[in-house]
Amino acid sequence: MPTAADLQAALSGFLDRHPRRRWARTWGISVASLVTGLATLFLFRRGVEYFPLFIGYLLILWLTGVVFVGVRQSLANRGARALSVALDYTVQTLLHGLLLFLLPIYYASTTLTSGNVWLLIVLVAATTLTTIDPWYRAVLTRARWAEIALFWVGLFASLNAACPLIGLATEWTLFLSGSLGLLILIPAFGQYLRISWPAVILRVTLSASVLAVCVWWARGWIPPVPLYLTRATFAKAIEQLEPLEPVTRISSEELHAWGRVAAFTAIAAPAGLAEPVYHVWKKNGRTLNHMLLTTVRGGRRGGFRTYSWKTELGSDPAGLWQVDIRTVHGQLIGRVHLLVTAPELNPEILEPPRRQIRQDLEGSES
Prior knowledge:
It is a single chain. This protein is an alpha+beta fold. It folds into two domains: about 5-220, no CATH class; about 230-340, Sandwich (Immunoglobulin-like), CATH 2.60.40. About 55% of the residues lie in helices and about 20% in strands. It has a five-stranded mixed β-sheet with strand order 3-9-8-5-6. The chain has a four-stranded antiparallel β-sheet with strand order 2-1-4-7, with no helix packed on it. A hairpin with a 2-residue loop joins strand 1 and strand 2. Helix 4 packs across helix 7 (about 145-160), helix 8 runs antiparallel to helix 10 and helix 9 (about 185-195) crosses helix 10. The protein is elongated. It starts with a helix and ends with a helix.
C-alpha cells in the first residue's frame, strides 16, 4: 500500500512532467472555493428568513474545521504531509464558504455612510483572502495566528446573526458572539500556544471576557443583523401605514404649508424576532429628538412599517434633515435624508429696491 510520501513523490513527478498543471495546483483551490461559495449563495438565496435552517449546518462545518486545525498538526508531526495539506485546503474551503455566505446578510444590514461599514470591509477582505489561494498561503506562512483570527471573525459574524433568531435577548447577543467565538477556538489555541491546557483555558477565558466587553462598547460599529431597512422616506402624511406624497427634496415654503412632516420606515426581520427601535431626528448634523417607536416584529412581508412625526419645524427649516433608525441599544439600522431648500427670491420683490438704487445713482451724477 503506497504511503503518504509515495503519493507526494508521485504528485511532484507528475507536475515536473506536465509543468502547465502547476497552474491547477496554484489556482485550482481558489477556483473550487469560489464555485462552492457561489453554490452556497445559490442554494440559500431565499434570504435571511431561512437563516435558522442552515446556520446550524454551517456552524457544524465550522466546528469541524476547528477540529481539523488540531488534527492537522499531529498529522504533520507524523510525516503524513499529503493528508495534512488536504486538511489545510478543507479548512480554507470551510472558511471561504461561510464568509461568502455571510457577506450579503451583512451588506443588507450595513449603512455604507456610517461607522458600521468597517465590519463589512473586514468580511470582504477575509473572503477575498480565503478565495485567492496564493495570498492565503503567503499570509499563513508569515503569520499563523491569522488563521485563528479568520476563524474568530467568521464565528463572531455567524453567532451575531444567529443568536437573535433562537430567542436570545439582543443585549446578550454581542456579549456571547464575541466571547463564545473565542472560547470555541480553545483547541486551536492549544496547538498554537504550546503551553499546558489549564494555562490555555485560563488565558482564553480571560481574553474572551475582555473581548465581550470591547464588542459591546463598539456595538455602534456593528451592523444590527439580521435587521435591515427595506424602505425609508419622508412624506406629507401616513395613511394605512403607507406614505403619502413621499419626498427627498422640498422647499421651505411648501414644508411650512404642510405644517409637519413624517419619517416612514419599513424594517425587515425574520419571523420570531422582536426588537424595539427609535428614530433620531437631526438637522444639519445636530440632534433634535429621540423618538422611541413600537417594537419591530419579524416575519412581515415587505418589512415592519412604522413612522414618526416632526411638527416643530422652526422659522427657517432650510437645510439637510436626517432620521437615523436605531435599535434600542444604539445600533444603526439605516438612515433617510430630506433636503429642504431656502425660499427663492422673487424678482418682483427685488425690483423696487433696484429702481430706487438707479434713481439715487442718476441723482448723484447730475
